[in-house]
Amino acid sequence: MPRPEPSLSTLASQVPADLDAYWMPFTANRQFKAAPRLLVRAEGMYYHDVDDRPILDGAAGLWCCNAGHARPRIVQAIQQQAATLDFAPPFQMGSPLPFVLAQRLAALAPASLNHVFFTNSGSEAVDTAMKIALAYHRLRGEGQRTRFIGREKAYHGVGFGGLSIGGLPNNRKTFGPLLAGSDFLRHTLDLERNAFSPGLPRHGAELADDLERLIALHDASTIAAVFVEPIAGSAGVILPAPGYLQRLREICDQHGILLVFDEVITGFGRVGNAFAAQRFGVTPDLMTLAKGLTNGAVPMGAVLASDALHGAFMQGPPAAIEFFHGYTYSGHPLACAAALAALDTYAEEHLFERALELGDYWQERLHSLRGLPHVVDIRNFGLIGAVELMPRKDAPGARGYEVFERCFRDGQLLVRCTGDVIALSPPLILERSHIDRIVDVLGEMIRATG
Length: 450
Hints:
single chain
């Protein structure tokens, strides 16, 4: 008799017989497959690896599992929705949950951001926001506004639009000239003046005036939008000085330029409010979301648009399609169910306030690592943090990767490494004891790394 195929639960809990077929994203594939780090289940603050070791999650998965893992309300919502309506076409048809979720997000967002366009990821949300910005100016008779302004060290996903306004060289250099016309503000990372600043750095608000320089160079009438992450996560937690974002808003308003916040990482409680726009008191014209939107359980992204911007599209014959754009899975029923359950979980457990409640202790413990070998900076805000290490000569990134690897293998702790920066963004359900363990293990592994 033929041997029965292994069950899905068995396949999901053991090392696959062959790792070669899967081309892994943003990963040194050959290095990984020689010594794989495989996670097989998760609950609360912990993953479990293929050897059933508990791994404390210091990164909320990939900046996304803000309520922790396998939360019952979210799990049940996905199961129930899959059994009820697994898919509904979003073009010229609909299902109830996207409308319900859009209303919930509008109520949660800063005033005037009352309209939601659903995507499947942060990358798609950014490219969608770029298209909205271009179309908006064209509708208003300013079709010459085609230029985008990004920022050095920014990450706005991996679509050709997001790459074109992103400022991470390794993400860009392989893919040719990208979209024409983009330009870049300087980043706000300044170790010389701001190293080891608790919370927001004191210096750097004046860097927002770079936008005036770019406007003088290109002329405001050619610029469609400025894209910024309120806090740049993927580049290693780069923070704005007080007044920086406010100044960008002022300059954009003076010149008719849209301001777009990429809140894929900062959204859903990471900084102590629902969104960083609220924490910093600056409302953009467009805001991109993903990650924590569904607590990482089902892929989903979104663009929030202001009333004024949305209203420009709602002109002309009512039977005409207003925006020729969308995705097969826009507003997918399973994603909407997960997102609504995630929002309920955040609200019931007051998780958006956790970054305020624990922020001071998080800051105190993180900065206790100052003085360890090779530590050149520590950055924090809300429940996000970074420890920057001195690169090894002729081997940038090697020291950071070794600390990351040691944390997983020896410390049973998941962190993120981006170059020689160890980035931290634990689930918002953590307690002080989890903070202590994250910092203690990270400190031990830094000491052990030459």
